[in-house]
Amino acid sequence: MYAMHYEITLPADYDMQIIRNRVADRGHMTDTFAGLGLKAYLIRERDKAGATLNQYSPFYLWNDTVGMNRFLWEGGGFQGIVESFGRPVVLTWSGLLCQRGPASGVLPCAATRERVVVPREADLAQAARDAVAEVERIARHSSVIASACAIDPRSWERVTFTVWADTPEAVVPGERYEVLHLSRPGFDELAPSTE
Predict the structure, then answer these.
(1) Which one, 23, 65, 187, 188, has the greatest CB density within 10 A?
(2) CA-to-CA distance for 137 and 80, rounded, in angstroms?
(3) What is the rounded distance in angstroms from the CA atom of residue 36 to the CA atom of residue 2?
(4) Could you tell me if residue 195 is inside a domain?
(5) 180 closest CA partner among 4, 36, 7, 45
(6) Structural domains counted in the chain
């Protein structure tokens, strides 16, 4: 699994309905994208749910690099972002775990993303085990669709990403997003059902 995320920060007076319409028109295009486990079309809207800015911020969990590379390099989708907004920095992490939650069949409402630096003195195997344990704990929450963790070995940053069927509890750390659409063509491979 590979996690990928980019952020497109928009002007304070930007009409976010433009992004909502874009996702309504184009979001279905990744519903069958080969190699994609999950794509969450995310926004943060200034002065809503604690957001201080307007942002379009898609987050991906890839089952393989073939699909990810096709998306980025072969006109498989990212070129549309570049043409509309310029070329954003694409953050990537090596995946540790994606865990299906009790609400995995429900429509999404929100997402959270927490980024934490793995301390230099940390035992890396223990840091990975701790990240996995955290995802397993979060994924037990009744309104979780899926939760995942990954680490960027370049910056030693850990990301925990969770998709929620309801607004997440205040105790869940990290940035909060509204989910406009959730594509999950390879979700069963990414997070197999335990039933």
Answers:
(1) 187
(2) 37
(3) 10
(4) no
(5) 45
(6) 1
What are the tokens at 89?
Answer: 């920095």
> Is 195 a residue whose pLDDT tops 70?
no
Spatial contact of 3 and 93, defined as CB atoms under 8 Å apart: yes
Looking at the chain, the number of H-run helices and the number of E-run strands are 5, 10
CATH of the domain at 107: 3.30.70.100
For residue 116, being part of any structural domain is answered with: yes
The per-residue pLDDT for range 123-158, each reduced to its tens digit, is: 999 999 999 999 999 999 999 999 999 999 999 999
Tell me if 17 is assigned to some domain.
yes
Sign of CA dihedral 14, 20, 21, 26: positive
Q: What is the pLDDT of residue 172?
A: 75
Domain that holds residue 30: 2-190
Q: What angle, 0 to 180 degrees and rounded to 10, lies between the N-to-C axes of helices 65-73 and 78-85?
A: 40
